[in-house]
Design a protein that fits this description.
The complex is a heterodimer of chains A (395) and B (313). With 395 residues, chain A is mainly alpha-helical. Chain A contains 17 helices and no strands. The mean pLDDT of chain A is 85. Chain B has one domain: Orthogonal Bundle (MetI-like fold), CATH 1.10.3720.10. Classes of the chains: A mainly alpha (395), B mainly alpha (313).
Chain lengths: 395, 313
C-alpha cells in the first residue's frame, strides 16, 4: 500500500460517499412521500363524499317541484315561460285544485292555504314523474339564495323522512333515531362498567396472576373482529335471552364491543393521576374508595371522558355486528322503546351503497356526510375536553 | 361498603373474561352443532342422514352452502380473505413503516403535530364509508387505469370486475395504515437517542442509521404492528363486503370478485336462510375459523413484543 496516500487525508467526497448521501436523500424523500399518501387519501376520500353528496343535491335543486312551485309564486317571468312551454301544467294544476276544493266543500270541509299548496305540490310531483321532457324544457334559473333555500329543504327531507324505494324520496329518519337510541343505551351500559373495570385494574388489583390474566384478556378482546361480537350478540342476546332484534340487544352487543376501548382509555387516564394525590388522601385517613371517588376520579375525568367519547364514536360507525344481530334494513317507523326493532345510520348507508342505482349511491354519500359530521362533532368535543384539562393541570 | 365496592369493581373487570369465555363457548358449541347436524331434514328417525365432514370443510375447494349441489369447502373463503389481506399489506406495511420513520426521525414537531391527528381521523372513519369509497372511487379508477392493459394482455374478459379484491385491498390498506404508522412510531421513539447519536458519530447517514440501527432496535414493535395490521385486515368486514363482492372463488387474480369469510357471514345474516338450518350454521363455523386466525395473530404479536424486545434502561 502506498504510504503517501495513506498519510494524506481524503477531503473531497469519493464516489462511494456520494452514493451514500444520494441514498440517504432519496430515502428521506420516499419517507416523506409515504407520509403524505395517508393525508392525500383522507383528502381524496372526504372530497369524494362531499362532492358526490352536495353535487347530487345541487343537481336536484333546479328541477325540484318545490323550486318550480316557489318560482311560480314569486317569479312572473317564470310563469310566462311555463305558459309558453308547458301550457297544460298551470291550467291543469288550477283545475285539479279547484275540483278538489269543490269536492271537499260539498262535504263541508274547508281547505286551508297550506293544504292547498301541498296539494298543488303533489300534483307537480306526479306530473314531473309522468312527463320528464316537459320539465326538462323548463329553466327555473334559480338565484343563489333560492338554491340554498330549496337545497336546505331537500337536506331537511333526507333527515326527516323514512326510507323509500325511490332515491329522491328516501330519508334517514328511522336510521338517525335508531342510532340515537342505540348510542344512549350503549352509553348506559358500557360507561359505568368500563370505568369500574378500569378503576379495579388500576387502583384495586393486586399484582397476581388473575390481574395479569384480565389484562391480557382485555388486550386480546380489543383485537377481536367486530363481526365476532355480532355472532356473540346473536347467540346470547337475540336468541339466548330472547331479546329479539331489539335496540336493547343491539346496545348490549355494542357495549361488549367497546368495553375494551373504554377500559384501556380509562386506565391510561387513571394511571396519569400522580401518586402523591392518593397518598395525600390516605394520609388523611380516607379509605381506598373515598380516595378514588373524591380525588382520583375527578382528576382523571377529562381523560376518561375523552376515551369514552372516542369509544362512542366508534360505536356510532360500527356496522357489521348490528347486521349480525339483525338490525333491520328497511324500517319505516321510529323506535319508541328499548324492545323495538331498529336500524342504524351505517346500516342504512350500507343498504344504499349495495343498491345498483347510481342515485342511491349519491344518497348514501349524503348519509355518509351526515355520519361524518356527527363523528367530527364528537371528536372535536373530545379534543376540546382534552385540551381544557391539559390547561388546568397545575402539578 | 368498601368490600362491596371492591367486589363490584372486580365483577366489572371479570366481565371481560366472561365475554371471552362466552365467545369461545358459543363458537365451539355452534360449530360442533354444525358438524353433527344431518345435512337434510329426514323424516325417518333412524336415518341420521349425511353430515358435513371436518376434512371436507378444511380441504374442500368449493364453497356453496346455499346452492345445489351443496358443498362445504372453506378454502375459497380463506383464499379470498388472504388475497385481500396480502393486497392490503402491500400498501399498509411499507407506507406505514416509512411514514413512521419520517414522523419519528425527520419531521419537525410542528409537522408531526399536524400529521398525527390526520392519521387518527383516517383510522376513525367508519368502515362502511371505506366501502363506499372503494366501490364508487377506487374501482372505477382501477378500471380506467388497468382495463386497457389487462384486456390487451389477456383478452376481452380479463378486465377489472365491478367487485374485485384489488379495490378492497386498497381501502383496507389505507384503513390499517394509521395503525402501523402509530405503533411503529411508538417503537422508534422508544429507541434511546444515544443509539442514534452513536450511529451518527460513526459517520452513518440518516438512511443507514434508520435501517441499520433503528430498525433492529425497534424490531419487536415493528413486527407486532405488522401482525396486528394483518389481523385487522382479516377481520375487516363492511368495506370488503361492499368492494370484493360475494362469489367465493379459489383464485389469485385480484381483479375478479372474491368472497371473504367476513363478507360471507354478512351475506348469510342479511339473506333469508332460515335460522337453525345447516346452511345457517355455517356462519358459526366460518366465524370460528376467523376468530381462531385473528386470535392466533394477536397472541403471536404479543409474544413477538416480549420475545424480541430490546430493553433499554
Amino acid at each position: 500500500m502506498d504510504v503517501e496516500q495513506q498519510n494524506t487525508p481524503e477531503i473531497t467526497a469519493g464516489p462511494r460517499l456520494k452514493l451514500r448521501h444520494a441514498k440517504a436523500r432519496a430515502f428521506s424523500v420516499v419517507c416523506a412521500a409515504a407520509t403524505w399518501v395517508g393525508v392525500v387519501m383522507l383528502v381524496v376520500l372526504l372530497s369524494d363524499v362531499i362532492f358526490d353528496s352536495t353535487g347530487w343535491i345541487y343537481s336536484r335543486v333546479d328541477r325540484d317541484p318545490r323550486m318550480i312551485m316557489y318560482k311560480l309564486e314569486t317569479d312572473p317571468q317564470f310563469v310566462a315561460q311555463v305558459e309558453e312551454r308547458a301550457p297544460s301544467l298551470l291550467s291543469g294544476m288550477e283545475r285539479k285544485a279547484k275540483s278538489k276544493e269543490r269536492t271537499l266543500a260539498k262535504n263541508g270541509v274547508e281547505l286551508t292555504a297550506a293544504e292547498l299548496a301541498d296539494f298543488k305540490l303533489d300534483y307537480l310531483h306526479s306530473q314531473l314523474a309522468k312527463d320528464e321532457h316537459c320539465f326538462a324544457a323548463l329553466d327555473t334559473h334559480p338565484t343563489t339564495r333560492e338554491r340554498w333555500l330549496i337545497g336546505g329543504t331537500i337536506i331537511k327531507d333526507i333527515i326527516a323522512t323514512f326510507p323509500s324505494r325511490f332515491p329522491t324520496k328516501a330519508g334517514l329518519k328511522s336510521a338517525l333515531a335508531g342510532s340515537l337510541w342505540l348510542i344512549i343505551f350503549t352509553a348506559l351500559f358500557a360507561i359505568p362498567i368500563g370505568v369500574s373495570a378500569a378503576i379495579y385494574l388500576e387502583e384495586y388489583a393486586p399484582k397476581n396472576r388473575l390481574s395479569r390474566f384480565i389484562e391480557v384478556n382485555i388486550a386480546n378482546l380489543a383485537g377481536v373482529p367486530s363481526i365476532v361480537y355480532g355472532i356473540l350478540g346473536l347467540a346470547v342476546f337475540v336468541r339466548g335471552i330472547h331479546l329479539g332484534r331489539s335496540v336493547l340487544a343491539g346496545a348490549l352487543t355494542m357495549s361488549l364491543l367497546i368495553l375494551p376501548v373504554i377500559i384501556i382509555a380509562a386506565r391510561e387516564a387513571i394511571k396519569a393521576v400522580p401518586d402523591s394525590i392518593r397518598q395525600g388522601a390516605f394520609a388523611l385517613g380516607a379509605t381506598r374508595w373515598q380516595t378514588v371517588r373524591h380525588h382520583v376520579l375527578p382528576v382523571a375525568l377529562p381523560g376518561i371522558l375523552t376515551g369514552v367519547i372516542l369509544a362512542m364514536s366508534r360505536a356510532l360507525g360500527e356496522t357489521a355486528p348490528m347486521i349480525m344481530i339483525g338490525a333491520l334494513s328497511y324500517v319505516a317507523f321510529v323506535p319508541t322503546g328499548p324492545m323495538d326493532d331498529f336500524t342504524v345510520l351505517p346500516i342504512q348507508i350500507y343498504n344504499w351503497v349495495a343498491m345498483p342505482q347510481r342515485e342511491f349511491h349519491l344518497l348514501a354519500a349524503c348519509g355518509i356526510l351526515i355520519l361524518l359530521i356527527f363523528l367530527l362533532l364528537m371528536n372535536s368535543v373530545a379534543i376540546f375536553v382534552r385540551q381544557r384539562a391539559q390547561r388546568n393541570i397545575k402539578w | 361498603m368498601e368490600i362491596g365496592i371492591k367486589y363490584f369493581l372486580l365483577a366489572c373487570a371479570l366481565l371481560s373474561v366472561l365475554t371471552t369465555a362466552a365467545i369461545i363457548f358459543i363458537l365451539l358449541k355452534e360449530t360442533i352443532a354444525f358438524f353433527t347436524m344431518p345435512l337434510e331434514q329426514v323424516l325417518d328417525v333412524n336415518d341420521q342422514g349425511t353430515r358435513v365432514s371436518i376434512i371436507e370443510f378444511f380441504t374442500g375447494r368449493r364453497w356453496a352452502p346455499v346452492l345445489s349441489p351443496q358443498s362445504f369447502g372453506v378454502l375459497p373463503l380463506v383464499c379470498g380473505t388472504l388475497l385481500v389481506m396480502v393486497g392490503s399489506a402491500f400498501i399498509s406495511l411499507p407506507l406505514g413503516l416509512m411514514s413512521a420513520i419520517y414522523l419519528s426521525e425527520y419531521a419537525s414537531d410542528r409537522t408531526r403535530a399536524a400529521i398525527k391527528p390526520v392519521l387518527e381521523i383516517l383510522a376513525g372513519i367508519p368502515t362502511v364509508v371505506y366501502g363506499y369509497f372503494a366501490l364508487t372511487f377506487i374501482t372505477p379508477l382501477l378500471q380506467k387505469m388497468l382495463n386497457p392493459v389487462l384486456v390487451g394482455l389477456f383478452g376481452p374478459y380479463a378486465g377489472v370486475n365491478v367487485f374485485n379484491a384489488a379495490s378492497a385491498s386498497v381501502v383496507v390498506g389505507i384503513m390499517t395504515l394509521p395503525m402501523v404508522t402509530s405503533l411503529c412510531d411508538d417503537a422508534f421513539r422508544a429507541v434511546p437517542n444515544s443509539l442514534r447519536q452513536g450511529g451518527f458519530a460513526m459517520g452513518a447517514t440518516r438512511f443507514e442509521v434508520a435501517t441499520q440501527v433503528l430498525l433492529p432496535a425497534a424490531l419487536s414493535g415493528v413486527l407486532a404492528s405488522f401482525i396486528l395490521a394483518l389481523s385487522r385486515a382479516i377481520g375487516e368486514t363492511m368495506a370488503v363486503t361492499l368492494a370484493a363482492g360475494g362469489s367465493p372463488k379459489l383464485t389469485l387474480n385480484p381483479f375478479t370478485s372474491v368472497e371473504t369469510m367476513t363478507a360471507y357471514i354478512v351475506q348469510i345474516s342479511l339473506g333469508d336462510t332460515p335460522a337453525g338450518s345447516v346452511e345457517y350454521q355455517t356462519i358459526f363455523a366460518v366465524g370460528t375459523v376467523l376468530f381462531a386466525i385473528t386470535l392466533g395473530l394477536n397472541v403471536i404479536a404479543h409474544k413477538v413484543v416480549r420475545r424480541f424486545r430490546e430493553a433499554y434502561e
